[in-house]
Amino acid sequence: MGFSSAKDLFFEYSTFGGETNFTKSIGSAIFGLITTVVGLQLSLISAGLSGTGISIISTISILLFPIGIIYYTFKSATRTTDSKFHTRLGRSKVMATYLFIGGFSVLLLHTVGITIMTQVGFLDLTVPDILLGLALSLGFAFVVAVANYSTLSDSYPSLSKVLDVFETESSEKLERIDNKIEGIGHVPRSETNRILESIHEPDDLDDIIIKGEGGVGKSGILKRVSENSEHDILFIDASSYSIIRSESDLAEELGLDVSLETCIQQVAANRPFVVVVDQLDDTNREAGEIYKNVILAVAQIDSVSTIIACRAYDLEHYSEFVALSNSEYIDNIITVNTLDESKVRDYLEKLGVTSPSQDLVNLCKEIEYLDVVGRLANRGSELENLSEQVTVWEEYRKLLEEDHSSDDQLRGTRIVDRAVEHAVRTTESGSSVFSISDRQWTDQRLRSMGVIQRGSKSSGERTFRFRHQQFQLYLYAWDKVTGTVDDENLFRDTLDELDENINNDVVKWMFAVYTDQEGELPSDTAEFLEEILDDVDGFGFYWASKIIDVVKKWDAAQNQPVTNTVLEKLETREDLYKYFFDAGTDPSWAEALAEAGKFQSPPSHLLGYLHEIASLHPEVVKEIIREDVSELDRRSQATVVSVINELPLEHGVELADIVQDGLEDQEPTIDLYYSRASEFVENLINGEFFEEGLELADSLLRVRLEGEPEGPNDEMMSSYYLTSLFEEGTLERLIENRPEESLEIFEENMRTAAEHRAENRGQAVEELSFFYLKSISNYGIEQNDRYQPFELYIGFLREALDNWFEISTDEAQKEKIESYLDEYPVFRGFGFYLLKEYGEDHENLVAKELLGEENYSDIQLKKEFDLLLKYGFEYLSTDHQNQVIELIKSVPIQDTFTQIAEERQEEQEDMTVDEIAEQYSSRWIRDRLWPIREYLPDDTKEELSELVERFEDDPEGPDTPAVRSGAVSYESPESEEDLRDRSPEDLINFCIEEPFEEEEWYESDSIEETGRTGAAEKVASIILDEPGKYASELPRLAEAPESYSTRLIGQLEDRIEEEPEILDSESFRTALWDLSNQIVTNTDQWPSRTRKRVGWLLRDGFGNADSYKYFLIEENKIRNLIFTLTEDPDPNIERDRPPEGYAGHNDPSHNALNTVRPVALDALIIYARRKADDESEELDSEVKSKLEEKLDDPSLGVHSVFGRRFVTLWVADQDWVVEHLTDIFPRSQSRQDKEKFTAAWDSYVAFNKTYKDIFPVLRSYYFHAIDLMVEGENTETVNADQRMAGHLLTNYLFEFDLEDWSDSLLAYLYDRSDPDLARQVAWSLWKWGDSADENQALSKWEKTRVLWKRRLDQVGEDETFSEELSWFVRWLEHVENSVELDEVEGLLRDSLNHIAQNRRAWATLEEYLSTQSNDYTETAVDIFYKLNMRYERPMHHGFTEEAEAILRPALEEFENGDETYEKAFEAAQTYEAEAQSFLDDHR
């Protein structure tokens, strides 16, 4: 430790980290020391004090001073804000520092004073002298301790006082929150446990924002958190201090003498502490800014959790609060949703409301209104007319008015008047509390009725507040409207009078009351709306939106002047225009827009409005699209198709002509419209509207051929949509129902595609060559040939033919094959394909083609014909087989080989032309006989065996791909034999000098590109066949073009998995690492693809169990390579974050696979795991340092690797992972941390299973991930959402998540009311069961049943969740033989509404009931009866065998007239003619 560090340490412990005055403390001590010494010396000199007396005094001092030192040091420490002084060790260090200073001072004083004055040497000191010195040292320390305590006492209150103030404040504010509802009790919320879990660990306290609309129960949640937290709490109700002007004002209001931040630091230095700020939105803007600053400061204090509650709108729109939601210091934002509908219905039933209206249910989803309704219900109020918020408060006010005795009819009115008086005074003062009088009976009655409640905990205080602030504001508004009806500026005056923090809600209530006074709107409503919606002098967005909330629910046809005014003014307010039109807007406004011509060249948000209401009001939307929508640009037309897609299909099909016109009315264009039209066609076909679907499909196929892409990715996306259109049974359904028409469409478009391809190549279509590259079998809907129409349509036609052949007659098949064989080469290729696949029934056609000599010389169809030979040969009769063998032996293309031999004779001077030709012919015979070898006669087999032995290369079969690296076979300009003959030095020189010219095309019996790529492949293969031989020259490969090194490293990466011994040669390894080092260190000279190849080699090498040890032999070199690659400039920001529409956009895991630094980090982690496995030790410091450095890498691709390899890191060094969890998965709300979290987390769940030992560590991170996914903050990482659902499901099924259900991750997810995530969980459950055997599925049945029931209880009949619930129904497919109907009867009955929305769920139910009907006839028939009588069957779902099996026992075993018989009969009758025969048989 240097002098400077020692000095800093000395001052730190002598002044409590700078919180006391060193000079003052030491000065006081020195002064006291000198005074004491002088006094003692005077006593000695005057003989007034003996040595014995000094000894006694010193001994007493030695005993007492330490007690004082400890006492004052402890008292001082509790007032400091540094946690180390609150520990025993810290206080000991402080006291040690005091004693050191005291001892040093006494020794110094002795040297300077006593020795000089008394001439006594240091070693001549007596016992009294020593005791005195020790006493003086302790006295000095004591004085310092007292001085420090004095300073700290002046600066800070005591810890106990701070805690008392905090406890008093918290208790008072929490007392105000009543989170129990009359008649219901406490309503549990999953958010409570989510928050408690986030603040459970003292060393890992989260800072949290909870947001939600007003009245959803945020305060109640915070009260439960405060009551159940294990830590000390400060609960601040910001609405109580809503008009503060400085931080000191806040401290003063709380009763603190110093700043709130300092006091919190004091407490946090001593223990974990939680600060809760409620009602943050209920402050004015100035106070909001002050709270923001305090919150951000407190959030940075260690051992403190800050929890804030704020309305969602304020959090997202007010700048001071937006800063909080984007802060890096906030870990989680938790959205508090309204209650689930099913829970609301249950609660209302508890209140005695057994048949609530939907409006009442919607109202009571907000806790505040459920509370009020509970009070109204328990007092006998009529609830049928409660449909809006204002009607709830009207009813509540009337309840107060009705509280009167028979002798005083005005009693109730006086209670309301007193409540209004309090409301007006409180609202206008900007406060939330008011005083009441003991002498006012009305106040006592308001208290007893629960309208007002105590605002202060102290019983002697008369401070009260309204139980419901919204009722306070409603009363204020009601008084203003009813008392000043003639005031033309009523609303404007009110806004000017009130503080901004409350006038928003007041305006809303005033307008609600204002328009609710009569059966029709007041006469001046139009003028009022014109004023408030004015774009210059009108209300701001938030205030105006409160008015709009009321207006949008009116019937627009009832008051045309008002409607015209609203539409006219909204056009000048784009933000309000977008806000006004949504699913909650009365559909009459859509008709009003149409009548006003607003759908002629409409803005995008109006079309978005149609999209939102399409499924709710299909007739209205259909009529508007047909009659009123016009003058659209192309993007708007695409939006209209999206709207049509949202219509129920029976309505959407009526608009198919509009979609058709959009495809044909202009030059063919591949754009967004095209993609939307593809989705529509898929829906039509799957809905069995085949004529309309086929016509549109034909147009889509033609446009794909002729259209020009609008954007860079439109061509690719159109192929994707076309492929998706015909996937998953759509094509099969088309062929099955419209076989000839469908096949004709695919044939005609295939012809057109072939003509386009030929034209683009400057060829006649008869000259078009294709099937020498890939077989038709290689093309299909699910293949990767999604970009070019020609290849795409080959796949479409091939799969269409396969389906057509399954249902066609032999004669029709024969005609089809013959028609193809008579066409030009492309269709002849299809003819060969069909003979190969279905030739067993068409032996004569196969024989005809295999005996046609011209086919053996047809280069255009070589690949397809060779496949026909291989697979069709077995279909031939023995005679025909022998004829084909003789034809092959005769070599029908002998003339071609003779010509080739003449051209190449100069290259092979040691052979004659005949010998060269014979060699080609023999190899040709070998390659033709080899695929049919198992059918050859014995003598021919012997001939083939001789030919195979004669040639070194292996026979080529037709299944061997003719293409490498894409659509071209790359060949070397020099033969492999010649290259092998070169010396190592000469071979590398060949690569450097490249003594050849590239030829783009070379045709013999294939198409080749001759040049560098082919040469690089051959050279790489030659070097790797004998690596030791070429080792000495290998580093010089760096002088050659990069292709040679890239191919070498790429081939090595491919080969080491099967041939790890390729790295046996030490010289080769040394040369390879030297070459790699040149590549990775010279980033300007080597492209990223070569550097990436090095990274891939290292990654895959360490990942291979057989090869990784070779990489550890020269470990230092390998580490340096990896470390160098981790600093590579690739990816830059553009490569790491591609813009929308480009591959890798919002998909860090995709970019991580294709850029250098992420690949290098991947290799580093795998290397670290191998080292840990081999040496059974933690990561070494250098690796840890590099990993920690990469945690700060700005690349999201790099960060995603930490998630992808999380389990690998865990196994390598669990302690390191736990220590850096918050770096791998940062949970703050800053944009950067959100991006890093989702990059890592989505990769973690997408590429890893969940593990029981890891889950507890990540549990809180799962919560955070759910929050972000619900907010739409996740990435596009492939299958991340599905795999996340799978993780959550696994945690539930296998009991990793052992919390009570209400505390579990799944419960929290379901409370987020996200249908898509919930559906993914249910699908994952079904998928797991689908892959399990029946016993495994049955073992999880109970958990599945419980989860199914929970979801039904939670979502009721809400069809938004029908797709999710259908997967639970379909789980019966896995256990139908083991689960009896009486076990699932209730679940099935409660699920009927959801089953009716899903074709497959309906079919599953039928199948299950058909297996149960014999044993449970009455129940099975009743369920089936109710399903058919109450709900509409899925389109085209007919009377199935399963339906017959369900009903048959009832009709056979029960008498006519019996209830079960009648239900079965009526259920069958719903199928009309389809079931007639069945009913006839059972009359």
TrEMBL record:
<feature type="region of interest" description="Disordered">
    <location>
        <begin position="950"/>
        <end position="981"/>
    </location>
</feature>
<feature type="transmembrane region" description="Helical">
    <location>
        <begin position="53"/>
        <end position="74"/>
    </location>
</feature>
<dbReference type="InterPro" id="IPR027417">
    <property type="entry name" value="P-loop_NTPase"/>
</dbReference>
<feature type="transmembrane region" description="Helical">
    <location>
        <begin position="95"/>
        <end position="118"/>
    </location>
</feature>
<feature type="transmembrane region" description="Helical">
    <location>
        <begin position="130"/>
        <end position="151"/>
    </location>
</feature>
<protein>
    <submittedName>
        <fullName>Uncharacterized protein</fullName>
    </submittedName>
</protein>
<keyword id="KW-1133">Transmembrane helix</keyword>
<feature type="region of interest" description="Disordered">
    <location>
        <begin position="1129"/>
        <end position="1151"/>
    </location>
</feature>
<keyword id="KW-0812">Transmembrane</keyword>
<keyword id="KW-0614">Plasmid</keyword>
<feature type="transmembrane region" description="Helical">
    <location>
        <begin position="26"/>
        <end position="47"/>
    </location>
</feature>
<keyword id="KW-0472">Membrane</keyword>
